[in-house]
Design goal:
Strand order of the largest sheet: 5-4-3-1-2-7-6
Strand content: 5-15%
CATH architecture: 3-Layer(aba) Sandwich
Number of strands: 7
Largest sheet: 7 strands, mixed
CATH superfamily: SGNH hydrolase
Order of helices and strands: HEHHEHEHEHEHHEEH
Length: 265
């Protein structure tokens, strides 16, 4: 028994010696590899781009003195807007308007103007308030005005209180006629004034002061730019010449010699 105790003691001592020979140095922890992304912000500056605005060339402006000039022929409706037309149309060279004027008389005056060279580059026509204006007469008129670059045809007021007004059938002739001639332009005064009773005097045909201004403005809006290489400007200072009385009163605006040659006594 004593021998067994000695043997056990020896074995325990051997085991303790073996354990003491082992590396008792504690394992050092290896710091983890730094996988963090560098937080330094890289500022990328864009290149300085200079944007150059394209500036369009200055548009050509109309000259103070247009190349062409305008003539106008009418009856008592146009007669009521003479001053307004002068204000709205600075290159108005010749105007002749008279009360009770018939289409046949207007055509005769246009023929005189053609012969004398008074037609100008644009002719404004407001005829038909006083009598029938036939398609044949319209064609006869356009034979005279065939070489004029632009002819403005003004439609007629249709009075609401008049039964079977002559202006209604004449407007049909005017609108149909404009379709046949490429140098004509319709100035639809009837459509522009139909909802404006303030444009007229008591007879619903002749113009009030407000109506004269609207009438002249509408015509001027249809003139457009003057044609290239327009006709020679009418000679001498313009004057206003009047004649007649009552329903046959008339006015002419233009050179005195031109007015004297085409007025109706």
């Amino acid at each position: 028994m004593r021998n067994l105790s000695v043997l056990a003691t020896f074995l325990v001592a051997a085991l303790l010696a073996g354990c003491s020979g082992a590396d008792n140095t504690p394992a050092q922890k290896t710091p983890p590899e730094d996988t963090s992304v560098d937080s330094t912000t890289v500022s990328i500056q864009p290149e300085n781009t200079i944007v150059t605005a394209v500036v369009p060339e200055k548009a050509a402006t109309a000259t103070d003195e247009p190349a062409g000039w305008v003539s106008a022929l009418g009856d008592s409706v146009m007669l009521g807007a003479v001053e307004a037309l002068q204000q709205e149309i600075p290159n108005l060279g010749l105007l002749n308007a008279q009360g009770s004027r018939q289409p046949s008389a207007a055509i005769d005056i246009l023929k005189q103007w053609q012969t004398a060279g008074y037609l100008g580059d644009t002719v404004v026509i407001d005829i038909g308030n006083n009598g029938p204006f036939s398609s044949e007469q319209f064609d006869e008129m356009m034979q005279v005005l065939g070489k004029v670059p632009k002819v403005l045809i003004v439609t007629l007021t249709v009075p609401p209180s008049v039964e079977d007004p002559i202006a209604m059938s004449n407007n049909t002739v005017l609108t149909d006629g404009v379709q046949r001639y490429p140098n004509t332009v319709l100035v639809d005064w009837q459509a522009a004034s139909i909802d404006h009773p303030e444009y007229f005097s008591a007879d619903n045909t002749h113009l009030s002061l407000q109506g004269a201004e609207a009438y002249a403005h509408l015509i001027a809006a249809h003139l457009g730019p003057p044609p290239q290489g327009g006709s020679e400007t009418p000679p001498g200072p313009q004057q206003i010449i009047s004649w007649g009385e009552g329903g046959f009163f008339g006015k002419c605006v233009g050179p005195p010699s031109w007015c004297a040659a085409t007025t109706t006594p």
